[in-house]
Specification:
The chain is 62% helix and 2% strand. By secondary structure, it is an all-alpha fold. It has one domain: Amino acid/polyamine transporter I. Strands 1-2 form a two-stranded antiparallel ribbon. Strand 3 and strand 4 form a beta hairpin. It starts with 9 loop residues before the first helix and ends in an 11-residue tail after the last helix.
Length: 499
C-alpha cells in the first residue's frame, strides 16, 4: 500500500540544491530576483482595478485598501521567504508541501499551481492581445477582428457589423515569443525581464510625477465616502471589499520562489527577491492610487473599464480652457500607459511560464510526472521540452478559450497555494523547530495564522462557480495521481528506476 503522506526530508532537498543535481544553471542574483518579482506583480491590473475599486467600493480610501491587501500578501510572503531560504530548489509551494505535509498534499498544490501559472499565462495573453490591437489602432493598423478573438467571442465593428472570432493570433504570438526566450536561457530571460520592468516602472513613475502637480485636495473629501446601505459599497466595508479586489494586483511575487534552483546565493537572495519586490510594488501602488484619486473625483471612474480609469485621470491633468473644458497637458501619456501595459503583461506571461515549467520540473524529478518535464537542454541548461509543451498548451488555450472562463480560477488557485505555504511553516516549526533557517518568519504562529485567515477571507468573496471549477480541476488531478503518479513516485517506489 503506497503511503499518501510520505515526505521528502529537508536534508535531501538541501543536498539536492547544494549538489546542483537538478542540472539547472545558477545565473540569478538578488537584483534579478527582485526584477523577476516586480515583473510578475505589476501588470495591467494596476491601471484598471485601481479606478474601478475606487469608483465602486472605497473612494479615495483605495490607498487604505492597498495597504490591507499588501499586509495580507506580506504574511504569505514572509512564509515563502522562510521556505525559499531553507529549501532553495525549484518547485515553490509544491516542494514546501512535500517536505511538511506529504506527497498527496504536494500533488494537490502542484496540480493547483497550474491554475496560477499556465492558466494564468493564457488569461494574461488574451488581455495582451486586446491591448496590442488597441495600440496598433493608434497608428491606423487594424488586424481582422476574427483573427484576434476566440470562437466564443464577438466584436462589433464601427459600421455595426458583428464579427465572430476564429482564433486569437496575437495571444499565440506573445506566448510563443516568451516561451522561446525561456528556452534560450534563464540569464537571457532575466535580462529581457529587467528591460521590461524598467520600462513599465518608468511609465508608472512618470504618471505619478506628472500627476502630482494636478492633485486637488478637495477630491480627497470625504476620504472615506459614507456607506450607501449596501455591504461593500463605500464606508469601512467598501474599503475591505476593495482590498479583496486589489489583492489580485499583487499576485505573482511567489513566482520568485520557483527560480530558487537558478539563484546564485538562494539562502540570502530568495528572501530579498520575494520581500523587496512586494515592498517596491506596494509603494508604487499607493503613490499611483493617491495621484489617480487626487487629480479627479473618484466618481469620474464610474462605468470605466480596461485602461479607461487611467485615461480619465490623464485627461484631468491639464488646465481649464476658455470654454470651461480641461485641456489635457499630456495627451501622449495614454499611449505610454498602453505600452507599459503591453510590457507588463509580457513579463507576467514570461514569469508565469517560467514558474510553471519549474514546478513540473520538480514534480517530474520526483516521479510524479513523466521524465519529459525534467529533461534539461544540454546547451541552454533549461527545461526546454517542458517549455515547448507548455507553449503549445497555453497557446491553444489562449487562442480558443475566452479569458472570462478562467480568470477567477487563477485567483482561487493562488490563494490555496498561499494557505498551504502558511500551514507548512506552522507544521515545520512544530516538527523540526531546531532546523537551521537562513530567514525566519517573525511572530510565529501569529503571522502564518493571519496569512491563512486573510487568504481564506479573500477566497470566500469569490463566486460559487469558481469554487466548483476548482473542485472539478482537483478531481481531474486525483485521477492522474492515482492512475500514474503514485505508481511512479520515487519515494513510494524506491526500488523502481534507480537512475
Amino acid at each position: 500500500m503506497a503511503n499518501l503522506w510520505v515526505k521528502k526530508s529537508i536534508s535531501s532537498l538541501q543536498g539536492e540544491a547544494e549538489g546542483e543535481s537538478g542540472g539547472l544553471k545558477r545565473t540569478l542574483g538578488a537584483r534579478s530576483l527582485v526584477a523577476l518579482g516586480i515583473g510578475a506583480i505589476i501588470g495591467a491590473g494596476l491601471f484598471s482595478i485601481t479606478g474601478s475599486a475606487a469608483a465602486n467600493n472605497a473612494g479615495p480610501a483605495i490607498t487604505i485598501s492597498f495597504v490591507i491587501a499588501a499586509v495580507a500578501c506580506a504574511f504569505a510572503g514572509l512564509c515563502y521567504a522562510e521556505f525559499a531560504s531553507m529549501i532553495p530548489v525549484a518547485g515553490s509551494a509544491y516542494t514546501y508541501s512535500y517536505a511538511t505535509m506529504g506527497e498527496f498534499i504536494a500533488w494537490i498544490i502542484g496540480w493547483d499551481l497550474v491554475l496560477e501559472y499556465a492558466v494564468g499565462a493564457a488569461t494574461v495573453s488574451i488581455s495582451w492581445s486586446r491591448y496590442f490591437v488597441k495600440f496598433l489602432g493608434y497608428y491606423d493598423i487594424h488586424l481582422p477582428a476574427a483573427m484576434t478573438l476566440s470562437p466564443f467571442d464577438t466584436a462589433t465593428l464601427a459600421d455595426g457589423t458583428v464579427v465572430h472570432g476564429m482564433i486569437n493570433l496575437p495571444a499565440i504570438f506573445i506566448v510563443v515569443l516568451m516561451s522561446l526566450l525561456l528556452v534560450k536561457g534563464t540569464k537571457e530571460s532575466a535580462f529581457v525581464n529587467g528591460v521590461i520592468v524598467a520600462l513599465k516602472v518608468s511609465v508608472v513613475l512618470i504618471f505619478i510625477a506628472l500627476g502630482w502637480g494636478y492633485i486637488h485636495s478637495e477630491n480627497y473629501t470625504p476620504y472615506i465616502p459614507e456607506n450607501t446601505g449596501t455591504f461593500g459599497s463605500f464606508g469601512m466595508s467598501g474599503i475591505v471589499r476593495a482590498a479583496a479586489i486589489v489583492f489580485f494586483a499583487y499576485i505573482g511575487f511567489d513566482a520568485v520562489s520557483t527560480a530558487a534552483q537558478e539563484a546564485k546565493n538562494p539562502k540570502r537572495d530568495m528572501p530579498i527577491g520575494i520581500l523587496a519586490s512586494l515592498a517596491i510594488c506596494t509603494i508604487l501602488y499607493l503613490l499611483f492610487a493617491h495621484v489617480m484619486t487626487g487629480v479627479t473625483s473618484y466618481t469620474s471612474f464610474q462605468g470605466a473599464d480596461g485602461i479607461a480609469p487611467v485615461a480619465v485621470a490623464i485627461d484631468h491633468m491639464g488646465e481649464v480652457g476658455a470654454n470651461g473644458v480641461i485641456v489635457p497637458a499630456y495627451p501622449w501619456l495614454n499611449k505610454a500607459i498602453i505600452l507599459a501595459i503591453l510590457a507588463g503583461y509580457s513579463s507576467v506571461i514570461m514569469v508565469m511560464l517560467m514558474g510553471q515549467s519549474r514546478v513540473f520540473f520538480s514534480m517530474s524529478k520526483d516521479g510524479l510526472l513523466p521524465k519529459v518535464f525534467s529533461s534539461v537542454h544540454p546547451k541552454f541548461k533549461t527545461p526546454s521540452k517542458s517549455n515547448l509543451l507548455f507553449m503549445l498548451f497555453v497557446s491553444l488555450f489562449a487562442a480558443f478559450v475566452p479569458a472570462r472562463i478562467v480568470g477567477e480560477m487563477t485567483s482561487i488557485g493562488t490563494l490555496l497555494a498561499f494557505i498551504l505555504v502558511c500551514v507548512g511553516v506552522l507544521v515545520l516549526r512544530k516538527t523540526q523547530p531546531d532546523l537551521p533557517r537562513a530567514f525566519k518568519t517573525p511572530l510565529v504562529p501569529l503571522v502564518p495564522i493571519l496569512g491563512i485567515a486573510a487568504c481564506l477571507f479573500m477566497m470566500v468573496f469569490l463566486p460559487g462557480d469558481t469554487w466548483l471549477r476548482l473542485i472539478i480541476w482537483l478531481a481531474v488531478g486525483f485521477v492522474i495521481y492515482f492512475g500514474y503518479s503514485i505508481k511512479n513516485s520515487k519515494l513510494n517506489n524506491p526500488n523502481k528506476d534507480k537512475k
